[in-house]
Amino acid sequence: MTSKKDRPAALNSNTFLINKTDNQEVQSLVPSKQEDFSKREARGDGLIDGVAQRRKTGHIRRGLMAGPVPKETNRKRQSQTVELAQPILCVEKGNLESLAGPQLAFKNTSGGGEENLDVNLTEENLYKKNYRRKGQSTGNEIKMKTRPNVHELNVSEMVLDDIDDVDLPEVSLQAPVLKCSFVGCPVDQHTAMELKTVLLGSSLNSFSAEWINQGFAFSNTRELRYGIVQKKGGPCGVLATIQAFFLKKLLFEHTDNSSNILLRLRPSDSTRRQCLVLALSEVLWRAGEEQKAVVVISSGRSHFTPVGQYRSERLLDKMMWFSVDNINDLQVILEQHIEQYETEVLGCILLTISAVLSRSIEKVREDMDLHTTTLIGAHGYCTQELVNLLLCGRAVSNVFDNDIELDSGNGNMTLLKGIKDRCQVGLLSLFEHYNICQVGNYLKSPSYPVWVVCSESHFSVLFGLQRELLISQKEELEFDLYYYDGLANQQEEIRLTVSVGKLTQNFQEIDADLIPPLELCIRTRWKDALVNWNETEPLL
């Protein structure tokens, strides 16, 4: 259960999809029928008001032509039924806030289409996923021949068909209400101002065009179908990190593809989308400490009128957030709205804000060495805090292992916060080559051979195809690494052959200015490694 402190902003009566009057109307439909049925059942009356019994002899069965109907035998006819668990409608504000997970959303019948803010998850999709949610249940079940649209069900018009008299005590007149939607809370001005402050430094600052116009769109180049394309500089840290987790899913966890791992580098459109959903889910779930996550989408309309010290680009005021407490629900929401992340606009901003709210604005500030640090720095570049938030779930300011305490004098200690445990994907930095920082083993030796590369104020990705290279103890080692830079307008695959050990030469004889920065980054992980670019022009 998300605590009040972790919620982006306090909710008011306007944040719910149904107002109080609507809630009372919805609730009043069910008890009246239920009580009426209970009274009749107590009297032993098998008839139900409002539902005319139809003679089976005159009933046309689906799939059969009309004609003579044979007499019923003494053997009970087996009904083709589908049993659906029936949850209680929780529509009051207190109940919504107390639900231990994604909450129910209902269409607003009193307003126009703009007021319908549900996610539109279909009942069919939930059945395909063998999908069950936490929540209260009446214990009653309803038997139906088909699965009608939930929004089209009308209790007053419901007709029970193909039900024998012995089945009547098990029948409920309630329409089945599935937990197939999530309550979305609009971002209010207070939350928008706090988000802008932690991201940009002030609520008066604005997102750059490079951020606004960047999403997670893939390359159509045959050899680079796995690559996310960056249009302009700025959000490269976000793109490279998601690219790294995408490759982890594609190469090592997506089992539907060919056993030939090289063929996995040519994914289909559906595979790319599926792996992107999984990658985004993993990042957000880790940011929420694997207990909760927040997904932010654009609703297309403003939810507040800006006042005071706030500059609006008509972005945050149109956003809504959905809070979930299990990763399956997280994947469902992202899959339903993945197009908003894939398009050429807002994708990076939506993901960044989702990660911040999943962690919570307060905890993001606590992670940093200086609480005034921003996640987006000068010229729109991603800071190390933002990259670390996506990589390991904490917006810490450093890349070394664990925390370090420094004596500031006069008995004062300064705490420098680092990476707490081994990461799934890692990071290599050119700054380490210049002794500006030290990357710890938690990032240098991740669980999977995929690294975000920080080089010359830009982030890109380096990855291998064999996990064994992370644990090999051989003195002489040779392996291939693949490099991808979404901003470089890359048109071909870059495969590097790395040799480690006695096969390498003395690099002291080579002019340092002629060594590509990428090679220097590789050598922070494999000392004195020899890199063969395999007829590809080295990137200087």
Question: What would your notes on this structure say?
Answer:
By secondary structure, this protein is α+β, with helices and mostly antiparallel strands. It has two domains: 17-44 and 80-170, no CATH class; 185-532, no CATH class. 27% of the residues lie in helices and 13% in strands. The protein is built from 15 helices and 13 strands. The protein has helices at 20-43, 93-98, 123-128, 189-200, 209-212, 236-253, 269-287, 327-336, 338-342, 347-359, 361-367, 384-392, 430-433, 441-444, 517-523, and strands at residues 82-87, 137-144, 185-186, 293-298, 319-324, 404-409, 412-416, 426-429, 450-454, 459-463, 477-484, 494-500, 530-532. The strands form four sheets. Strands 8-9-10-11-12-13 form a six-stranded mixed beta sheet. Strands 3-5-4 form a three-stranded antiparallel beta sheet. A hairpin with a 4-residue loop joins strand 9 (450-454) and strand 10. Helix 7 packs across helix 8, helix 7 packs parallel to helix 10 and helix 7 (269-287) packs across helix 12. The longest helix has 24 residues, at 20-43. The chain is globular. The two termini are 51 Å apart. The relative contact order is 0.10. Residues 1-5, 9-35, 37-153 and 162-180 have low confidence and may be disordered. One of its GO terms (biological process) is proteolysis. Hydrolase that can remove 'Lys-48'-linked conjugated ubiquitin from proteins. Keywords: Hydrolase, Protease, Thiol protease, Ubl conjugation pathway.
